[in-house]
Amino acid sequence: MSGPVPLGDQASVPSRIATVSLHTSPLDQPGTGDAGGLNVYVVEVARRMAERNVAVDVFTRATSPELPPVVELAPGVNVRHVPAGPYGHLDKNALADHLCPFIFGMLRAEAQGDPGHYDLVHGHYWLSGRAGVVAARRWGVPMVQSMHTMARVKNAALAAGDAPEPEARVRGEDQLVRQADRLIANTDDEARQLTGFYGARSEQISTIPPGVDLETFTPGPRSEALRRIGLPHDTELLLFVGRVQRLKAPDVLIRAAAELLERDPSLRSRLVVGIVGGLSGEGRREPGLLADLARSLGVADVVRMEPPQNRRRLADYYRAATVTVVPSYSESFGLVAVESQACGTPVLAARVGGLTTAVSAGVSGVLVEGHDPGHYAAELDRMINEPAWRAKLAGAAPGHAATLGWSRTVDELLDAYRDALAPAPAPCGLRMAACR
């Protein structure tokens, strides 16, 4: 670990944080199963906290008996695998039945250290929050919660055929909002959802945008990136990156591509729809859904399904793309959109949730109302056939992404942690008595 924390009173900064990511490990590849932007967030924040002399232990469920109890992710960052329920993949909704052994595992780990081993607990997602609250109360430390997604918000914007989030999750999130000392919202929109859907108090919420790795995701020559991912130099690559599930709406891109080819059949020889990601959620139960859709629309020949990629390889996909398409029904932030812009590629996204922050509409990308494939096709047509306009968006994209670096995120998280650690002010009567 290097260097002191640069801001404020060192005594008010936690020296060790218990981060809870119960349902998905920071060691998992983003884009597979339940791993996504939350995993990236936990890893990037933990690394940068450790660089500022704030140690982080990340508690996650052990999915295999072969996993070591503790893995060092980076100097000052340990991932602790806690046995809870049967090994292997479990549906997120089933994990609520295995919270007790997970909590006991957290308490055992803390008991092995000195008294006051952890100064603060930060939960990610509602399941982690439920476990984190119990541990925080047992240790007498503040509880900070990031929801990332919320049941009532998702249920208000379900994709066709998508199952609603269970009532148990809704109740659990209600309880978390009442119990957490501090709530972290990714965007102003999420902060409004916390107050509007869950009755959170505005003074309880810190709005802190996630960041992007500005060292890995950088602009570069598009022709070279196309060559590195095995595509001809004249390819028009329409890129989707993320977990393959109805909520993320990759089908909207495929339908839009079909409409685009109806408008201009000459595009077929150079059009590629790239779907980069793994099956997730209900997508596991519908593994052939996108391929069947592409065949039924007559565009199977232009759809290229790719597994999740490591970050450096993913940066080449962004650089190679004409446009990155993010048509999600719900997004708490939209990290893919920011990564794409950091690589100099404009974004076409749904005007939902955190995407209104992640994309600067009309400057670094385009936001579309709703999920009508025809509307997306019209914007894709313009991206391809108006190169000067696309180039203007592409030129502004890295500048917008640069305002969302991880250093800013960690600075503001440390401020939120200070607020959570600060002693509560005494009631007015006690303060007056103390002054006499």
* N→C terminal distance: 47 Å
Q: Note the main sheet.
A: 8 strands, mixed
- Largest beta sheet: what is the strand line-up? 3-4-2-1-5-6-7-8
| Low-confidence runs | 1-10, 429-436
Describe it.
Keywords: Glycosyltransferase, Magnesium, Metal-binding, Transferase. Homodimer. 1D-myo-inositol 3-phosphate binds at residues 23, 34-39, 92, 125, 149, 169. The protein is α/β, with parallel strands linked by helices and 436 residues long. It has 2 domains: 10-211 and 406-425, Rossmann fold (3-Layer(aba) Sandwich), CATH 3.40.50; 222-402, Rossmann fold. It is 41% helix and 15% strand. The chain has 17 helices and 14 strands. It has helices at 37-51, 92-95, 99-111, 126-139, 151-155, 167-179, 188-198, 222-228, 250-263, 289-296, 311-320, 335-342, 355-358, 373-385, 387-402, 406-421, 428-435, and strands at residues 16-20, 55-61, 70-74, 77-82, 120-124, 143-146, 182-185, 205-207, 236-241, 271-276, 303-306, 323-326, 347-350, 365-368. The strands form 2 sheets. The protein has an 8-stranded mixed beta sheet with strand order 3-4-2-1-5-6-7-8, with helices on both faces. It has a 6-stranded parallel beta sheet with strand order 11-10-9-12-13-14, with helices on both faces. Strand 5 (120-124), helix 4 and strand 6 (143-146) form a beta-alpha-beta unit. Helix 3 (99-111) packs across helix 4, helix 4 runs parallel beside helix 6 and helix 9 (250-263) crosses helix 14. The longest helix has 16 residues, at 387-402. The termini are far apart. The model is unreliable at 1-10 and 429-436 (pLDDT under 50).
